[in-house]
Each structure stands twice: as C-alpha cells, then as structure tokens.
Amino acid sequence: MIAVFVTIQIKKGFKDQFMDALLDDALGSIHNEPKCYRFDILQSDEDLNRIHLYEVYEDEDAIASHRAQPHFTKWLSTVEPWFDGDRTRIEMHTVLPTDETWRGQKQTLKE
After folding, report:
1. In 3D, which of 92, 60, 75, 93 has the Cα closest to residue 29?
2. What is the distance between the alpha carbons of residues 58 and 74, in angstroms, rounded to a whole number?
3. What share of the chain is helix, strand, coil (3-state, %, to 5)?
4. pLDDT for 46-100, tens place per residue?
5. Closest C-alpha among 1, 84, 15, 74 to residue 43
6. Dihedral of the CA atoms 55, 108, 105, 25 (nearest 10)?
7. Which residues contact 21 (CB under 8 A, 6 or more apart)?
C-alpha cells in the first residue's frame, strides 16, 4: 500500500469553507474509490489553519484514479485559491497494517 501525507496551510478566513469542501472529498474517496483505504483529516494544534491529510491507496494507479475523480477535481478547483503557499506531500509504503489488513478493513469504512 502507498501512504500519502499532505500538509496544507489555509489562508486566514477560509478554514470553514475549506473544511466543508475537504469533507466532501474525503467521503467521496472512502465511499467511491475501492482502492482508497484511508483518508484522515488532521488539524494542527499549533496552527488551526494547518491541515494534514493521511491517505492510503492500493497502488499508483489508485492514486491516479483518485486525482481524476469528480469529488477530487471539484475540491481542488474550489480550495486552491485558499492555499497559503504550496502543499507539501510525502509518499511512503505502509508496513503495519499489512496490505491484507488494509484490504480487510475496507468494508468497515462503508458502514
């Protein structure tokens, strides 16, 4: 599995709108993408306008598919003007949970 950790700094005054749009993208990813196993939204305690995303995908094709989904393209076009600087992105491979464990957890995400 491929894990992606993204950090986004939001311009002041746009956090509520940003979070609404992000929630739509996250739910679309979990519910509509069979190879998206996790999409966590995390908020910094030090800076409430700094958001971190932790996402897990089956493979590079699943990441490419995610970026082509209507919920993602809508999210990006909506929120991009609200970014305060560039997003940072780190890509890595998961060790634990194992790939089999991730696949087994997918069904529970839909409930």
Report:
1. 75
2. 23
3. 45, 30, 25
4. 999 999 999 999 999 999 999 999 999 999 999 999 999 999 999 999 998 888 8
5. 15
6. -10
7. 74, 75, 78, 79
pTM: 0.89
Which neighbouring-strand residues pair with 88? Answer: 7
The span from the CA of 105 to the CA of 57, in Å, is 13
The CA-CA-CA angle for residues 18, 27, 92, to 5°, reads 85
Domain boundaries, given as residue ranges, for the chain: 2-109
Q: Which CATH class is domain 2-109?
A: alpha beta
